[in-house]
Amino acid sequence: MFENKLICIVDDDASVRDSLSLVLGLKGYDCRTYESAESFLSSLPNRPACIILDLKMTGMSGLELQNRLLSLKTPVQIIFLTAFADVQVMREAFLGNAVDFLEKPFVLEQLLESINRSFQNLSATTENIQQNQKLSLLTPREKEVFDVLSQGKSHREIGELLKISPRTVEVHKARVMEKLGIKTLADLLRLSVKS
Predict the structure, then answer these.
(1) Comparing 9-18, 128-137, 165-174, which segment has the lowest mean pLDDT?
(2) What are 130-171's pLDDT values in tens digits?
(3) Up-side HSE of residue 59: CA atoms within 13 Å toward CB?
């Protein structure tokens, strides 16, 4: 889904930033490093990203940055990486939708699994946004036809329910399928389950 998967490393320790950037860069990721939450906020990425975020930094903490990104509705997934972990902080991070909370020194395989999960989440989120954008293109009547079609009703039943002719139902159905970019009733049902 994301050709050059972007990873932003936000940590006030230069050695952590450099080593992570090198290792993940060798794995094919597009890595950008930031020495503070403030420097990250001043140049937010323009595409979905996985953020590897230190918890305790000079200035804004990792949790504060997480809360800020949530309020901005930034399309990111966060993996906390820290030497200072306690249950309350971890709980707060997970309530803010953190993907993982890894303690330093970390195991590379665990980090790579968390990164993979992050991009899976981002892909699903992007797909949902695209589906909602397509659904917003439907007129109110087309939306009604879509909703009733997804219940498995026939054109005649839909016509009776919406007080329109079966032929008009067919016309609306064709427009719905064209606007949503789908070709079969099975695709329409799959989309209705996801939305």
Answers:
(1) 128-137
(2) 677 778 888 999 889 888 888 888 889 988 989 999 899 899
(3) 13
Cis peptide before 105 (omega within 30 of 0): yes
* Inter-residue contact 10 to 52 (CB < 8 Å): yes
CA distance linking residue 52 with residue 36, whole number of Å: 12
Are 180 and 134 within 8 A, CB to CB? Answer: yes
Q: Is the CB of residue 81 less than 8 Å from the CB of residue 106? A: yes
Quote the pTM value: 0.67
The mean of the pLDDT values for the chain is: 88
Q: What is the CA radius of gyration of the chain?
A: 23
CB atoms near residue 140 (< 10 Å): 6
> Pick the residue with more confidence: 187 or 171?
171
Residue ranges of the alpha helices (H) in the chain?
A: 14-26, 37-42, 62-72, 87-95, 108-135, 140-149, 155-162, 166-180, 185-194
Q: How many CB atoms lie within 10 A of CB 143?
A: 15
Cα–Cα distance for residue pair 87/96, rounded to 1 Å: 14
For the segment 43-63, what is each residue's pLDDT rounded down to a tens digit?
A: 999 889 999 999 999 899 999
Distance CA 118, CA 100 (A): 9
Strand order across the 49-54 sheet? 30-34, 6-10, 49-54, 76-82, 100-103
Structure tokens at 67: 């809360």
